[in-house]
């Protein structure tokens, strides 16, 4: 089994090289300018990682950039190997004049992020098989219990997790989104959401998450890795 550092250790180890810890993964973005350049940058990342890329590196090639994700598929967590790979990739990218960073860029600037869908349920074990089937999800590594989250096996769609309800609840949405962002981007993301007509419902669990709502009460959580170690 590979060593799994604490969340704080992971974040501090890669922050200066342009990677961010987001929902149990390391993510970075490399601007490319063209599809051909993006493919070349992706190939560089795979080459510099060598065999260590297997079951660790995921590459998302876009017309103007490459988004890279590191996580052990076997551990469903960031390991010491992933930290080493992040540093190796960043050094190679910097040498080619394209440094790694958390920003996605224009026309809608934002950071790297991951999306989860949360479903409130009275009987999680009873509804989990339905959502697993209808979304084509699979169990996360090491988490195949009747109440565990579900993930997209190819990493294209959001993860799905279930929140236990104590009793029936009316006049409140029972499905909400969790937007996982880099910890240093959360204040700006929350500020822009509030300026756009949202309201802060709760900050009692910050910086792990803040609960926001739109003008009609539909809720979303902005989450970070902080406050989750231990």
Describe the structure.
The chain folds into two domains: 7-95, Transcriptional coactivator/pterin dehydratase (Gyrase A, domain 2); 114-223, 2,3-Dihydroxybiphenyl 1,2-Dioxygenase, domain 1, CATH 3.10.180. It is 26% helix and 26% strand. The chain is built from five helices and twelve strands. The chain has helices spanning 7-14, 35-49, 80-95, 124-134, 186-195, and strands spanning 20-22, 25-31, 57-62, 65-70, 114-121, 138-139, 150-151, 159-164, 175-180, 199-202, 209-213, 219-223. The strands form three sheets. Strands 8-5-9-12-11-10 form a six-stranded mixed beta sheet, with helices on one face. The relative contact order is 0.14. The mean pLDDT is 92. This is Putative pterin-4-alpha-carbinolamine dehydratase.
């Amino acid at each position: 089994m590979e060593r799994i550092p604490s969340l704080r250790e992971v974040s501090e180890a890669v922050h200066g090289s342009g990677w961010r810890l987001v929902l149990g993964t390391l993510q970075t973005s490399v601007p490319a300018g063209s599809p051909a350049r993006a493919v070349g940058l992706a190939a560089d990342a795979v080459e510099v990682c060598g065999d260590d890329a297997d079951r660790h590196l995921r590459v998302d090639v876009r017309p103007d950039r490459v988004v890279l994700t590191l996580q052990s598929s076997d551990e469903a967590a960031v390991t010491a190997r992933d930290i080493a790979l992040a540093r190796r990739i960043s050094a190679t990218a910097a040498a080619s004049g394209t440094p790694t960073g958390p920003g996605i860029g224009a026309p809608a600037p934002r950071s790297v992020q991951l999306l989860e869908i949360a479903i409130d349920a009275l009987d999680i074990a009873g509804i989990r098989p339905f959502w697993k089937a209808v979304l084509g999800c699979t169990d996360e590594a090491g988490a195949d219990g009747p109440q565990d989250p579900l993930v997209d096996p190819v990493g294209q769609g959001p993860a799905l997790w279930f929140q236990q309800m104590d009793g029936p609840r009316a006049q409140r949405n029972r499905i909400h989104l969790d937007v996982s962002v880099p910890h240093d981007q959360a204040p700006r993301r929350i500020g822009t959401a509030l300026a756009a007509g949202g309201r802060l419902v709760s900050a009692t669990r910050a910086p792990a998450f803040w609960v926001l709502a739109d003008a009609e009460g539909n809720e979303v959580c902005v989450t970070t890795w902080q406050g989750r170690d231990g």
